[in-house]
Every structure is written in structure tokens, then in C-alpha cells.
Amino acid sequence: MKTKLFFLFAFITFNCMAQEVPVKFNELPRVAQDFINKYFPDNFHHGIKEVESRKITYTVFMNDDTEIEFTEAGRWTEIDGGNNKIPYTFIQKPILDYIKQNYPKQFITKIELEQTGYDVELDNGIDLEFDASGLFIKVD
């Protein structure tokens, strides 16, 4: 009986753990490929597909140390440039306008798409929260 319970527990634990596999650029969802080609051309280094509890996500690592997380459908959820400036052209105009007006000497190093809006980190370490329309909520 103990042996059966052990194997059952091991089976459940193994199936609940995230499984990560390397992926090539052409194995990413088309939407993610298009995003990378448009905003990070010739910068792809490698990608990881993670499957956890039937949820699939992709993490892409760029040559300049930027990391991008994508959903299974290929929509970005987080872009982390480390200490580097990330491209701005995909970021909503109200977010960019707010930063330009209130933090003119800073640049965005990270942006995360959350359920209620955006979390933006500047190079000076300040975290800003915006709603889904890009309107400023608060400094976090």
C-alpha cells in the first residue's frame, strides 16, 4: 500500500511540475515571431517553451540580454531589458507621454502586461503602474 501511494504521489508531482524545452525561432507562435522581427530584429538568441498545468508560455532570450515572455498565442506579457532601454514603439502613447513629461531623463527598462494594466520600470528603479488604457495610476 505504501509503495502504491508513493508512486501515485510521484506521478502527480511529476505531472504538476513545469516542463521546459528549448525552441527555435520558427517554433514560436507566429505573432511572437512577428513582434520580435519588428521590434528586436536580428537579436534572437534562444527560446524556452514552458508547459505547466496545461498552460504554455514562451521565454525568449535576446543577444542583448533582453528577455521577453509570450503567451501560448504569442502575445507579449513581459519585456525585461535588464539595464538596457527597450524599444518604445509598441508601448501605448499615454504611457510614453507620462514618462516623457514626469521623468524626461529616464528610460524604460522593463514593462509587464498585467490583468488590470501595465507595470513599467525605469532605469532609476522607479516602478510606475498604468491602467489598461495607459493612464497613470501610481508609483509603486
Question: If you had to describe this structure to a student in words, what would you say it looks like?
Answer:
This protein is globular. The model is unreliable at 2-13 (pLDDT under 50). Strands 1-2-3-4-5-6-7-8-9 form a nine-stranded antiparallel sheet, covered by helices on one side. The protein has helices spanning 2-16, 30-39, 93-102; strands spanning 19-23, 44-52, 55-62, 67-71, 76-80, 108-113, 117-122, 127-131, 136-139. The longest helix has 15 residues, at 2-16. Helix content is 25%, strand content 38%. It is of the alpha+beta class and 140 residues long. The protein is built from three helices and nine strands, in the order H-E-H-E-E-E-E-H-E-E-E-E.
Strand order of the largest sheet: 1-2-3-4-5-6-7-8-9
Strand content: 35-45%
| Main sheet characteristics | 9 strands, antiparallel
Straight-line N-to-C gap: 52 Å
The global form is globular
Number of strands: 9
Mean pLDDT: 90
Order of helices and strands: HEHEEEEHEEEE
Give the structural class.
Answer: alpha+beta
Q: Could you estimate the helical fraction of the residues in percent?
A: 25-40%
Flag low-confidence runs.
Answer: 2-13
Total DSSP helices: 3
Radius of gyration: 19 Å
